[in-house]
Specification:
globular; alpha/beta; 5 helices; oxidoreductase activity; NAD(P)-bd_dom_sf; Oxidoreductase, short chain dehydrogenase/reductase family protein; Rossmann fold; SDR_fam; six-stranded parallel beta sheet
Length: 195
């Protein structure tokens, strides 16, 4: 089966927070194949090159920067603009799957880590990058299907995903078409074999 031909993104800069994760690495590969310069906040360029392969890795860049807080996300956006001059697309793939407790058994630590920290990272990245996107740029957030369907013992992941989808709706309403804002729902389990 042949892959559909992707449009060329030569000269475009794409930032992929979460680009070292199971889902993020596929996003990174796709943008590299389309010719974009892909920036991943990570200090692990060697790990990324191993995942995507040496040939497309020529346009892969990493920046040692976090995105967990408003300050970290602002620093990341500032670094990207300083180094590359513009940001065309941002695809946020932070967070992940968690299961194991009913809502009434959720600890304060689990709530903080799975809901608050992930929601804060998504909000911080949107706040920092959306106003800095190029005029025809796009901002995309990746959520799991649990954002729309409740799974027993995984409620806080569902709640966080639903908040993430509402954030996208609010951004769309507030931007009024000035920038594209997307969400993508994962249906099923996307993983990579890493040995």
């Amino acid at each position: 089966m042949s892959m559909p031909h992707a449009p060329s993104l030569e000269g475009e800069v794409v930032v992929v927070p979460g680009g070292t994760g199971n889902v993020g690495e596929g996003i990174v590969r796709a943008f590299l194949r389309a010719g974009a310069t892909v920036v991943v906040p990570s200090g692990r360029l060697d790990q990324l090159v191993e995942l995507v392969g040496p040939e497309p890795a020529g346009k892969l860049r990493t920046l040692a920067a976090g995105s967990a807080t408003f300050g970290e996300a602002d620093q990341l956006a500032t670094k990207v603009l300083a180094e590359f001059g513009h940001v065309d697309h941002v695809v946020v793939s932070v967070g992940g799957w968690w299961a194991g407790k009913e809502l009434w058994q959720t600890s304060a630590d689990d709530w903080q880590k799975i809901f608050v920290d992930v929601a804060t990272s998504h909000m911080a990245l949107a706040r920092s990058f959306v106003p800095r996107l190029s005029e025809d740029g796009s901002y995309t957030t990746i959520a799991g299907f649990s954002a729309k369907k409740a799974f027993p013992s995984a409620g806080i992941v569902s709640m966080q995903g639903a908040a993430q989808l509402m954030m996208r709706e609010v951004l769309t309403a507030e931007l009024g078409g000035r920038r594209r804002v997307n969400d993508r729902l994962l249906h099923g389990r996307c993983t990579a074999e890493r040995g």
